């Protein structure tokens, strides 16, 4: 009876029950309460559902009813399932017992199931039924807000995600109200509630010990008191009221209850395009206000060019001197200044103006190589001796001066043809200069070419414990017996000092009277906007994606060092870092030849508690339309109108817009809005059965499920187009895949960050723009998942885990596509990171996370190795493998060979795959860390995509696709193992976490 050979069906041929196969031919005069239990079992057995049980359809089993004076039984008769009943009471009892029938009962031979003395029998064999409470209430839904009756994750809402959702429900209808029409709607309510569940306790009627109570009666105090009618005159017909947690009262007049319940039962959550719950979300969205401006500051100063000129003007002994000047100006300006100053200072013997940013690189490009080429001296190689960095308490790495040369070997190969592999570095403990360069002739002999001493400044780092030694501007006057050096802080350094010494302390004073939780789950301030105008070098090197951009470096310093400033403040005042100070938006403007200036604007955080709206009642008009909700915020009670969610007509990301315009075949939902007000889409791919309602959690109970998150850090630009390209590329495979698995993905997890990115790239399209990594107020919102938060973007991931309970999570990310330096943080990438991201280490690499729980760690590690093996196999001998090999060589040459712990490599064939915990982030809001007992693998991909376009972007998209396909392949071919439970329905349960091994599939 409870199989696809009976009252259920598998409509799409995937082996999973996805619909009912029954026409309940219920006479108008009959209303057996037990039919509610029977329909609850129908809904419980399927993964999707339409309310057509009481409609005559071709090819389905008819359940008929016939009065009998002799017995109450159910049998096949005249090609239909016929129930004979002596009384409605006995009929009801039989239907309730059938609902709770043990599906392991062996009674294949029986021709009828009969009620005798309150029990059911197949012939002489009693049929066991399973009544009673569920073993655990851990995953019983809690309804303490009516807006969560139909939630994104089904009926009610569970605080924690779980692959199981239990239902212990009691439906009670006042007997005089139980008409046939009302009974049908109650049956649909029971079926829908049960469909969302993977465990159920029978009976669902008149069960006083149930967890959830749904009581239907006549009249309502809200109606009788006139409270509703005062607000909506003449409109109220029925009211659904939350009497207490998990106690729902549905009352109205006998004539109106059926129509109102029909609307309630068919209501869809607003995330699915319906209206249910949207009244609360719409109200919350309307409350957002623009943040107040806290203060504004400006900065102006002389340029370093003017200061250098003044030094030369005031110098009393330039006669016959050789003068070196170091300025962080574009090459053309420095070239022009050389010409002008030679005229203005004719007594100087020689004058050269070096760059004060990446000084060694510019020196070789602008001076050493041209002189070498002019000499026509043949060389077979080049050795660059580099002084080891030993600054006291300095954050700079020992190889700092090698880093400042990057990518000189590639530049030499591009410009003069000497292979990059023939240019090598030696790191010297003691060297007379910062750099010494030697040529190597055909015999292998070395000859001296040139040397350089780089001037450095010094300033304390924000942590108060370290020093940093950025390159300084300078005027260096060489006399016969002495060198006279005048250090000049670069324009960037002088502004940076102003920023950290005046702006940040003022900002802290403004926000220091903060509320609990600020700086952690919500920011101290809304945002700080920094506009800087300076004359600086900005050019492409035509080597890979490398460029020279001192203002990009300053952009990175301002962003990450501000984060560090507040992290240190948090340690001092609270004993833990402020991880969410606020949005930091540095806007850099190149202004050749003009004096530097800056403007800073700071906006405050609108501190208000997260508005806890609770819907206490839903009000229906006489036609059954749900038109108003009674809501409380804890202080007052008020009414909100009910209207349907309106899907965004335009998507903020062009790839999402393109895909939506092509009439997507799959389900698009909107579980929440970002803090900035953008509805965040989620795409669900499964083999649809065409029913009105479906239960993703139950689908994932029967099928393996994959969840992909894209666009979490918005400056990592390839993951969003990659998930759509994956679908486009795999279109011909998807139908086959979806017979065995479900796929759900977030295409753009961080729309607010993407909005900031578009603003930043308008002026500097090729920068990394890490300021757009996080959300609108600079929060890494992954850290506030599973918390009560105003940041809707943090809610999507937990909601998907509650709705789908995926087996594997893939988080597609990115790394810089070009050099990442921060001169005022030790030149390397930020000191907050345990390893260096100074240059790309690969075209794409993987990170695998495993639980620290000893009960599951071994299996997670084995699953991870299975994934690593298959990803390696997918990439081997491809262009991605070739690119990975290229970047591996670069990574070794500039980092790993000198400092393997700072530049680590965990190698697998064709790809780096990191498993060590010092590389892999592990915190409680990560799926596999939080739910090790059922998530099998949690993988990050990192493509070199910050920020790229055209062929480079396509290359990263392709890399993500191959990476994800390899994991899909493992999951697709892994054999599912089952265990059996003695329960009514769904007695087979997948063993989780699944053991990944495609060889056994």
From TrEMBL:
It comes from the Bacteria. Residues 698-769 form the Peptidase M14 domain. Coiled coil: none annotated. SUPFAM superfamilies: Zn-dependent exopeptidases. This is Peptidase M14 domain-containing protein. Pfam families: Peptidase_M14 (PF00246). InterPro entries: Peptidase_M14. One of its GO terms (biological process) is proteolysis. CDD domains: M14-like (cd06232). One of its GO terms (molecular function) is zinc ion binding.
